[in-house]
Design goal:
This protein is of the alpha+beta class. It contains 13 helices and seven strands. The chain has a seven-stranded mixed beta sheet, with helices on one face. Helix 1 runs antiparallel to helix 2.
Length: 475
């Protein structure tokens, strides 16, 4: 805009010099032409500049006055017709609409024709010349004005689109941040559930067992003191208690100072492991219990600790595993922990088997138990099983589909967390109840399966296949 002001002033000064130099002008016409130029400059400086700074100017009065001033100047000196080079652009810029601009152009052109022809004497060929010049000027003004107006409209539309795009990008960034934060919260919740929560649950159960053992020892001591049992009998009784009480080896038979000491040793060990797991989570580093341990070693350690906590027999069967990504090892370890935790909390089992297999590029972790199986509402009828799959399985075995796992997930976080972990690694989760030929439940089986080279991630985006809700039906 600044250069437009400079150009307007320069053209007015140049034309004033031309008017002063033209020898053919009479003094009256010289004064009239100079006055017209000065009037145009004053109108522009006092009125036009202010209108140009407004978004929606009301410029009809200014434009009409400017057209009349230029027409007077052209009448006094026809060479001042060059002023329309400033006037026509101002009409297009300051008009309220395209129709308004075209009307003002059509009004101005005939006035300039009359002023030009009459200013030169009004002979016939001058009228033809005036019509020719103004016809070209009017046509050029309208065409150029419409073209520039179209460009300006496209610019406004692009500005609106840019603003909308910027707003959409800001909204997308905000949603991405929220989704990332939600995914991170879910990942942390899964890790806490699969690590610290399991350790703390084990500590609680061991503390309950220790309290039971101490109470039994205390009651036995009180009974001996009250009944006046002789020293030899007390010594024999204490020896029996130190050796584990009754011969079953179960949780209810473990009494005496030795058993209590072992229980409290387990509590201390699990407490230290829970502390290590908490520190690893704080450092955002989910790791195996031993950084140098293989997946098989880590699973055996988990199974051994689980057996000591629950007095259940836990066997581990493992193929020779290929080198796996650390994230995949952690995922299968968490699945083993959660599978055994389900056995402890729900199965009422006496034994469990954890199997690690590799087949066709897939790693499969399976946790079987001899408990009561899964609830009936979580079961859907599945295909027949082969006779050699397991001696307790029959064609009436039932397995859970996606709806069944969703039903069980509503009771807790474990199965849902396992399924989400496996989905991030393009893996699948399946669970089923094992039954006798008569239809009685004799155990349950949980299977986690994922590609051996599958990437895992705790990010918000899950793989396209399989979706988190997909659960494989085992054969």
């Amino acid at each position: 805009m600044k250069w437009w002001h400079v150009g307007t002033g320069a053209l007015v000064v140049l034309l004033l010099g031309l008017v002063g130099w033209m020898p053919r002008l009479t003094p009256e016409m010289r004064i009239l032409a100079a006055g017209a130029l000065v009037a145009f400059a004053v109108l522009y400086a006092a009125w036009g500049q202010r209108l140009l700074r407004q978004d929606c100017p009301r410029a009809t009065g200014y434009l009409a006055a400017s057209i009349l001033v230029v027409a007077v100047g052209v009448y006094a000196e026809p060479n001042l017709l060059i002023m329309q080079c400033l006037l026509f652009p101002l009409i297009w810029v300051l008009s309220s609409s395209i129709r308004h601009a075209i009307v003002l152009n059509v009004v101005a052109a005939p006035l300039f024709v009359v002023a030009y022809a009459t200013g030169l004497g009004g002979s016939g060929h001058l009228w033809i010349e005036a019509f020719f010049i103004e016809g070209l000027s009017l046509g050029f003004s309208i065409v150029l004005g419409l073209w520039i107006n179209n460009i300006a409209e496209l610019g406004r539309q692009k500005t609106l689109l840019y603003d909308e795009l910027a707003a959409a990008q800001d909204q997308l960034a905000s949603l991405s941040r929220d989704a990332g934060a939600a995914a991170e919260r879910e990942r942390i919740a899964r890790d806490i559930h699969d690590t610290i929560a399991q350790s703390v649950t084990g500590i609680v159960m061991l503390a309950q067992r220790g309290r039971r053992e101490v109470t039994e020892v205390t009651e036995v001591s009180r009974d001996d003191a009250r009944d006046g049992v002789n020293d030899e009998r007390s010594s024999d009784r204490s020896s029996d208690l130190s050796n584990g009480g009754l011969s079953g080896g179960g949780a209810a038979d473990r009494t005496g100072p030795g058993a209590s000491a072992e229980t409290f040793e387990l509590i201390e060990s699990m407490g230290r492991e829970a502390l290590d797991e908490a520190r690893a989570l704080v450092a955002t580093l989910a790791k195996l219990p031993d950084a140098d341990a293989t997946l098989e070693q880590a699973v055996r350690r988990v199974a051994e600790r689980f057996g000591r906590q629950t007095s259940l027999r836990v066997d581990v069967e493992a193929d020779a595993l290929p080198p796996l990504p650390r994230e995949l090892e952690v995922m299968f370890l968490r699945c083993a922990q959660e599978g055994l935790a389900n056995v402890r909390k729900h199965a009422r089992a006496t034994a469990a088997v954890v199997s690690l297999r590799v087949e066709d590029g897939f790693v499969e972790l399976r946790v079987d138990d001899d408990g009561r199986g899964y609830p009936a509402e979580a079961e859907t009828r599945g295909p027949a099983k082969s006779e050699n799959e397991t001696e307790n399985e029959t064609a009436d075995d039932a397995e859970t589909g996606a709806a069944g796992i969703d039903a069980l997930s509503a009771r807790g976080f474990g199965l849902a967390g396992m399924r989400e972990r496996l989905a991030l690694a393009n893996g699948t989760l399946s669970i089923r109840t094992l039954r006798t030929p008569a239809g009685e439940p004799v155990g349950a089986s949980l299977t986690a399966r994922a590609p051996a080279s599958a990437p895992t991630s705790g990010s918000a985006a899950s793989p396209a296949t399989p979706p988190a809700a997909y659960v494989e039906r085992t054969s």
